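Attaching the record inline, Q. Sequence:
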Amino acid sequence: WPNPSPPSIVFDTETPFRDGSPVWITDNVTISRLGVPVSIGHSTLCHGTVEVTYLTDTETSCTKPLTTKAECHASTEAQFFIISSPHSYNFTQPQDCTEDVCIPLHNYICSDACIERTLPKPVFNDTTNICHNLIDTLEYKIYHNGSRGIVDVKGFYTLRNLSVNRDQLVRKRYKVTYLWAGNSDQQVFRRSGSPGYDRGKPVISGKRSLKAVTYNFSTSDWISVGVAGGSGYCRDRYNLLFGENIRTQCSLTVKGTCKQIQQQIWQQMLGPVANLSEAVISSYGDPKEGEVEAWVPLLSAEPPPVP
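Structure, as predicted:
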């Protein structure tokens, strides 16, 4: 990603941006439309592309295989320039396009905070068979001045490490968010609605301590259920979405003592919220960490005692 879309709409230098206009990117040689990967039909694989349009927030999720060393190294994201406005672009000398017209992407790597830095490439460890620096979530924040066009673009990434095996599928989450110019708070992440949940948005979970609640920006750390890979084994997770009933099943290979097997099953079932003594669910789609009363405990029967 970004996936260039077919040029079904002409690059019009006479018409200013308006709601729903195509968003254009360039490598200072060619021009293409910005698109994000999406799954098609019943498959979870990233086999399609949805076009990004001006002032329309976009969010997609799909899976890519991680079965070989080559697929690990290929899990990179293209860097590009976003065109501020077709009206401002000079066709005659595209290689001399200035940064106020061909706006470079500023990358931020996010964990507890987001730090601007070069996006690291995926690295395969031959000893452990683990692919490092895989992109888990990617959000592009596009800052604009309405019909006058785009003034800045920032990419916010969360990374993770995963083992490479023949059944491995990696879920990728993509998001495009539009913000008015001047709103430069890079710590602000749109959640799942404001204040209540929007239908189809991920349910947010966190961890409760004695006097506070904390939660991560990455949706991979929110409440989810296991889903099967191509072989039927549990290889991926699917976020619980507000207003969506879901039922999944997958096979899990376990080993160890009875207690260890029980813990493995419990961890697979509950994922990030397996520790019920700490797990809480946000009552709102845009929660605040300090508002303890806005979080509710995850109620569940404790696992039965090991005989």
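The mean pLDDT is 83. DSSP finds two helices and 19 strands in the chain.

More tomorrow.
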